[in-house]
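QA checklist item 7 of 12: single-chain prediction sanity check.
[x] sequence parsed
[x] length recorded as 296
[x] structure emitted
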Amino acid sequence: MPTVADIAAFCTLPRRPAQPPRGLWLIAPSLVLAVLFFYPLALILRAAFGEEGAPASLAAFREVLGSVLFLDGLEHTVVIAALSTLGCLVLGFTLSMAIAFVPFAGVKFAGRLIDAIISLPTFLVTLAFTFVYGSAGLLNAGLMREFGFALPPVDFLYSQWGVILAEITVYTPFVMRPLLAAFSTIETAQIEVASSLGARPWRIVGHIILPAALPALLAGGSLCLLLTVNEFGIVLFIGAKDVITLPLLIYGKAIQEFDYTSAAVIAVVNVALSLALYAVYRGVLGRFGGARAGLV
């Protein structure tokens, strides 16, 4: 039986303070999400289905989604996002292989530079492109001075291809980061053995490097596709003629034309497209593992 000393010692043991229910920890973040995200989203949804006080209707959806302006915006959005993502994958894979498997001075600096580029705002790259490739940029000014051209000979910047090139430049590091993480797991001994047995470089890439990089390629490509679909600053800053994407179309309808109903309809479509791409992105991470893809 416990003695009096045992009972006294037990009573003097420090006790843990009472912990509040776990549900209380969710109240504050839930309120923040409700005020900053769900309430504005609900207002957009309500505006898309008609003006306040009027019965909900799909008339605005039928009018906007059937318009030539919306269809052109959707086409530009999809084409620019797809080509930009493809360019990011090709360029990112090539540069990542060079950094990971080709020894050169400054390889660590190149890796740090990739992280630095990711942190930069997108308009800086667009501004640099304007200084170099713009109508009054360094390239055109030099060509006009040297060869006597009356008009700037390089004018791709203010087209759809200028937007694609700028987005490739901005978002390629988002592919390179997971690729470099994946390449760090490849044993160099495998490459050395394959090379000593007579395997050509393309065979080594196809049978050793590419299988290891596939999860990172899919995850990085999905992320790039999601980001390029919603890109607004690059398209607006370049000012490409007749290149209107969904984000730019929302801006024009809401800010310039004060047509909030049409802007809300397009915003709902853009949100739905973004959520679908995000589901694909999360599915890729779940299928192959975020840790393997170097994204967690």
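[x] summary fact logged: The CA atoms of residues 233 and 293 lie 28 Å apart.
[ ] second reviewer sign-off
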